[in-house]
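Filed under: proteins

Residues; backbone shape codes:
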Amino acid sequence: WILSGMGVQGGLEKIAAELPGVGLVAENGCMLKPPGQSEWVNLVPDFNLDWKTPALEILTYYTDRTPGTFLENRGASICWRFGNEERDEAAQKWIRRSSAEAQNHIWDSLGEIYSLRIIPGSSSFLILPKNTSRSTAVGTILSSHETNGPILPRSTSEDVALLSPGSPLSLRSPQPPGQEQNVPILYIGTDEHLIRRLNELVTAETCAAGGRATFAKWRIDTTQIGGLLASFS
């Protein structure tokens, strides 16, 4: 599985086409594609998306007055990117200020009303439902393994019926009774909340990328990640 903050369109759809056997989590846990399947599962189908219209209006204002920035309107989230290319000090300060003002504006006017959260990054920030994360997506994946059933979003009874065992969106084919399957898990990343959650599983190995303090069982230099993953292919 690849856990990503990228959107499906213009982002992970290319990876999905080239690596159909790899499961993908998009938008920091809002969307999920099981391995070997082509359809994406919306993990927040009942979440009110009315916040997106005023949020886009606010962010368009900051985009128009901040050169080099642009919007990504995704399925259940919005990303505001301001790039990381080299700029003079004055331009860099202006972008940082605009980014901070935009985040504060979104939070003050929409955050609590619509139960949103904002994930800041070095060259972007992401706005998405508050109770959605990569960790919740992993919980959904692990639950489907434990119950030997499909991936089910937090949804209505109609959605549950659509994703009944044996449906095209099932994570894997049901196993015969009594034939339980342990799922080995290797996580490489920096999400400490997810690392602590996975450490509770006997079949999981967690590996921190970078040198900061971590609860991960192992460490790896970021330059070694590509070679490590290639060794599993």
Notes: The first helix runs from residue 8 to 18.
